[in-house]
Amino acid sequence: MHNQVIYQLYPKSFYDSNGDGIGDLRGVIEKIDYLVSLNVDMIWFNPFFVSPQNDNGYDVADYRAIDPRFGTMADFDELIAKLSEHHIGVMLDMVLNHTSTAHQWFQKALAGDAKYQAYYYLRDPKPDGSLPTNWQSKFGGPAWSAFGNTGKYYLHLYDRTQADLDWHNPEVRAEAADIVNFWRAKGVRGFRFDVLNVIGKSDSLVDAEPGTESKFLYTDTPIVQTYIKELAAHSFGQDPDSVTVGEMSSTGLQQAVAYTKPENHELSMVFQFHHLKVDYVDGQKWTAMRYDFNALRKLLHTWGTGMAQGGGWQALFWNNHDQPRAIDRFADPKQRYASATLLAASIHLSRGTPYIYMGEEIGMSDPDYTGMNDYVDIEAHNAYNALLAQGLSAHDAFAIVHAKARDNSRTPMQWDDGATAGFTTGTPWLKSTNQRVVNVEAAVSQRIFAFYQKLIALRKQFNVISEGDYQPFGENIDWLYGYQRDFGGQHLLVLNNFADHDIEIPIPSAFQKAQILITNEPSLNPAATLTLPAYGTVALLQQ
Question: How large is the average pLDDT for residues 425-434?
Answer without folding.
Answer: 97
